[in-house]
Amino acid sequence: xxxxxxxxxxxxxxxxxxxxxxxxxxxxxxxxxxxxxxxxxxxxxxxxxxxxxxxxxxxxxxxxxxxxxxxxxxxxxxxxxxxxxxxxxxxxxxxxxxxxxxxxxxxxxxxxxxxxxxxxxxxxxxxxxxxxxxxxxxxxxxxxxxxxxxxxxxxxxxxxxxxxxxxxxxxxxxxxxxxxxxxxxxxxxxxxxxxxxxxxxxxxxxxxxxxxxxx
Length: 215
Ligand SMILES: [Fe+2]
Description:
This protein is of the alpha+beta class. The chain has helices at 2-23, 27-37, 57-65, 73-82, 104-109, and strands at 88-89, 110-117, 123-124, 129-135, 140-145, 150-154, 159-163, 169-171, 176-179, 185-189, 194-200, 209-210. Fe (ii) ion is lined by residues 146, 150, 179, 185.
């Protein structure tokens, strides 16, 4: 079972790498991809993690079922296979400073699982975190910023994003979003749940700073 978990997770990471190799266009994105590729995906380099299936299993399956983009099918298949073999949790505010005031919609509506990470990842990396990030429908994930550069591979349709408090823009399923350190960003999830691949390559122990801007 343990070996199977590792194999399924490794397969997913390999498919994410393949997708990013084909679709990253900016130097900063390529640099993050190169850092992901330095992670040793051997069984000697795994964290001691405890399986924790996602509480929002049905919602994540729904998000997966809505991924129709042809190029994302290998990633979709790999996520489906390892969905119950990861350590899922939710951010109850630990990514934020104490009493940040992050909304209860976010607290109750998010889930994440790390594929690579210092302690919660299936595979170990001192700094880099690569994971899956999920949000329930109709959530306004408020403007925030952080010291870590960030790469998102957006798997879902129907989510709007804004950067530096600019205009809202729709991002397509399959789009790659790069946030340089301390660039503010926010999201509004539409009627369908949001699923993404997410990466913080370094400064991944630094907290997010919430910016209380109006919708
Ligand atoms: Fe972020």
